[in-house]
Amino acid sequence: MREANKAYVEHANISVLNAQETIDFLTTAIPSWSVRGQGEMDWFGEKIQWFHVGDDNTYIAVQTGGKGVVQNWKESWTGVKHIGIVVPDLDSLVTRLDEAGYPVDHAGARHPFRRNVYIFDNNRIQYEFMEYFSDAPAERNDYDL
């Protein structure tokens, strides 16, 4: 549930080579998410499909029509490096994704109040999944430890 009159990110929109691959990845990672809407549209002369994968409050807009390959996240370039998603149980997510063929690429820095990992879908889109161990903003958002 979102707080009234507070800004938040509703969605991110990504173009991919294989939409079903990303849909499968996201719904495996977060079983409570589903395709909440979908359709086709003319994207500047090209017919594409779009899918909103998420819940009632937030989603990833996945659209077909992607071309080329995602650049290596370790290189300098302009664009989205990863999409961060908070989950209630990181260990369960890691197990589900590993069993589905999506291993952890790398873990984030050690921190007493949060833990995070980075995992790629087969479209080479990188996701950061994090679990917080505190509700206190000063602890959750501490960058000095």
Automatic annotation (TrEMBL):
Residues 8-135 form the VOC domain. Keywords: Lyase. The keyword Lyase applies. InterPro entries: Glyas_Bleomycin-R_OHBP_Dase, Glyas_Fos-R_dOase_dom, VOC_core. It holds the Pfam family Glyoxalase. PROSITE patterns: VOC. One of its GO terms (molecular function) is lyase activity. This is Glyoxalase-like domain-containing protein. It comes from Halomonas cupida.
